[in-house]
Specification:
Oligomer: single chain
Number of helices: 23
Shape: elongated
Largest sheet: 9 strands, mixed
Helix content: 55-70%
Structural class: alpha+beta
Strand order of the largest sheet: 5-6-4-7-3-2-8-1-9
Length: 641
């Protein structure tokens, strides 16, 4: 047998331990290759789509590469620690340290080459399906499968270099001093059961403080909490697994009426030992799972914003003209002509906005005409309102301010014109984007409005509103106006335009495409994160399989039934799978409370439904993964040694 054959058979013999490591590596390579295929696709050259693809895929590949490097380093260290007895025997038989390093190098390269080959092959096999999904997301006419050397070169080069680096650095993890300890297998990384009450209490305090701050956050402090909470929660999580949990279990062990019952004694005592051995692993799994939950949750909230975009922007086109706008008539005519040429039905209403000073608040208020409001409201299918002379309604700047304004009755005088009015309640329907008319706006009946208009003569702004039922079909409307605005901004002469133009249909198309593409990218990344997190638990579980098999063989000889055997296994496995996941779920839930505050301030939308869907989906995946691993673990435990 040659040295290379020996290395190959070592890999084959330890395939059970390397299985999760190999699967996670294959999945990482496959996702990286899919991103590379889209990155170099000839059909998306040029334009904003190319920029989105470059930015999103490039960032995803960088994150994936860095995370894979960390995952492989951690995994290799755990594998090598689990094989200390094997390495001790080889050194005892006369193998030199140089040869041992070479053995590890060849084994790692074999696994890496297999992962790259299988991952690249599967990536190319799924490329067509991947392109079909992306094509539907970004609404491209075609995104055909292609064959190019660039995605293959980038993927193979990136991961092969990564495995070479790991192969060279991995032997550093092996302690070759103390040969008798290696042969005994003491390099498994077991630690004494111990904890610090101070650190344990500190971990609980930090977590409670983080959760309290997240639940009590507000618009004024949310930015500061974004930078404060992650380090607090991370440090608290580390102390929670290394000291807080052992401390709590120690207190539980003192309750003999609970602890000394049936097989609870065996399960908890073994669980405490495994908890201390794998505290750092549980911490890593928790953080990785939290990152996965948060990344998908944030991207899902962006998609929620896109889905509720119509509620926030109820108009199809908006053109705002300020005094001195010489292009007003020409631009409005151009927009109406383009809508007719494209066969789009619309309702056009112009809103002259007047400004007056209120004697009640001493602030300036924006005034719009009731007939214009009713005309636009009718197009939306709402009931028209009637106001007598001297009556007015508040025009809420946002949906959330309606209840507050609707309960107010204000009598005031518009000082410049001397018109006395009584504002009784608020207008109940959302006709404009938030703060479009102003933060302090009212609706006047036509008679009072005309009196003020005769006094003011020139409105401060004219708001041209287009209600378009098929608003998503307006992507190409008003391109000339937008180009003029862009050129003026680039030339530094935007102050000369005296108008603004907004096309919610085109904005929605860009936002929906970007957010959906980012969500799709994030789901693949989250899949890699979760598979890696499960792999951490998997190889920790299977590296101690031999000792577990001997332990349960003794228990079987003592007469435990198969049902009792499964109960002990469940009590040992469930904490390892669901405690890190539960902490990550708790972290994410409180983080989403802060995220909801941010969205309330930006767009007043609710992201609860999307976040519940994300967390429920991850829960189902975790349960399926648990039963799959438990099934294989029970099968191996029952196998006679």
């Amino acid at each position: 047998m040659t040295f290379r054959q020996f290395a190959y058979r070592n890999v084959v013999r330890n395939r059970r331990i390397y299985a999760a490591f190999f699967m996670a590596s294959v999945f990482s390579v496959m996702v990286f290759f899919l991103y590379s295929m889209l990155l170099f696709h000839p059909s998306i050259e040029g334009g904003s789509l190319r920029d989105i693809a470059l930015l999103g895929m490039g960032a995803a590949e960088l994150i994936l590469y860095i995370f894979t490097m960390f995952f492989l380093f951690y995994s290799m260290r755990a594998f090598l620690q689990a094989r200390t007895k094997e390495f001790g025997i080889l050194l005892h038989l006369g193998m030199e340290k140089r040869q041992l390093h070479r053995l590890i190098f060849i084994e790692t390269i074999l696994i890496g080459a297999g992962s790259i080959g299988v991952g690249t092959f599967l990536g190319y096999m799924f490329s067509k399906f991947f392109f079909m999904v992306v094509k539907r997301i970004v609404l491209l006419p075609a995104l055909p499968l292609y064959l190019s050397w660039e995605p293959f070169a980038l993927t193979v080069g990136a991961f092969f270099s990564l495995f070479i680096i790991i192969s060279l650095v991995a032997p550093v993890f092996i302690r070759t001093d103390g040969l008798h300890e290696l042969i005994r297998g003491d390099g498994s990384g077991k630690e004494k059961e111990g904890f610090s009450k101070i650190r344990g209490s500190l971990g609980l305090i930090l977590l409670v403080l983080s959760y309290t701050l997240a639940s009590l956050t507000s618009n004024n402090i949310v930015i500061g909490l974004i930078f404060l909470l992650p380090p607090l929660a991370t440090l608290g999580t580390y102390f929670f697994f290394t000291d807080s949990l052992p401390f709590l279990l120690h207190l539980f062990k003192g309750r003999k009426e609970l602890y000394w019952r049936h097989f609870r004694l065996l399960a908890i005592s073994e669980g405490v030992i495994r908890l201390k051995e794998n505290a750092r692993m549980f911490f890593i799994v928790t953080i990785v799972s939290t990152v996965a939950f948060m990344s998908v949750g944030i991207l899902a909230s962006l998609t929620s914003f896109a889905s509720q975009y119509r509620e926030v922007n109820p108009l199809g086109l908006v053109y705002v003209s300020y005094p001195g706008d010489k292009m007003e008539e020409q631009n409005i005519k151009r927009l109406r002509d383009e809508l007719r040429r494209n066969g789009l039905e619309y309702t056009y209403v112009d809103f002259p906005v007047l400004k007056q000073r209120s004697s009640y608040t001493e602030f300036t208020v924006s005034i719009v005409k009731l007939s214009s409001i009713n005309e636009l409201a009718t197009a939306f299918g709402n009931t028209a309102f009637e106001l007598d002379e001297g009556e007015a309604l508040f025009l809420p700047p946002t949906i959330s301010t309606f209840e507050q304004l609707n309960s107010q009755i204000v009598e005031t005088v518009l000082e410049e014109s001397g018109v006395s009015i009584r504002i009784n309640g608020a207008y109940p329907h959302q006709l404009f984007p938030a703060h479009a008319i102003g933060t302090n706006a009212i609706i006047l009946n036509d008679t009072d409005f005309d009196r003020i208009a005769a006094f003011v003569k020139t409105p401060s702004v004219v708001y041209h509103a287009f209600d378009i039922p098929e608003w998503q079909m307006t992507k190409n409307i008003g391109m000339t106006i937008e180009h003029s605005m862009t050129e003026s901004i680039l030339a530094g002469t935007s102050h000369e335009l005296n108008y603004t133009f907004d096309n919610p249909g085109r904005n929605y198309s860009i936002i929906r495409t970007t957010f959906t593409l980012l969500l799709f990218i994030g789901l693949l990344l989250a899949g890699v994160f979760l598979l890696a997190a499960g792999s951490f638990i998997y190889f920790r579980l299977y590296t101690s399989l031999d000792s577990d098999r001997k332990q349960f063989d003794v228990l079987r000889r003592m007469g435990i039934t198969d049902r009792e055997f499964k109960k002990i296994i469940n009590r040992q496995l469930i904490p390892q799978f669901f405690v890190p996941w539960g902490v990550a779920l708790l972290h994410s839930s409180f983080a989403f409370l802060t995220l909801q505050v941010i969205w309330d301030a930006l767009a007043e939308i609710s992201i609860v439904r999307e976040l519940i869907f994300v967390l429920l989906g991850f829960t189902i995946l975790q349960v399926i993964y648990f039963y799959l691993i438990r099934w294989r673990y029970l099968a191996h435990i029952r196998t006679s040694s």
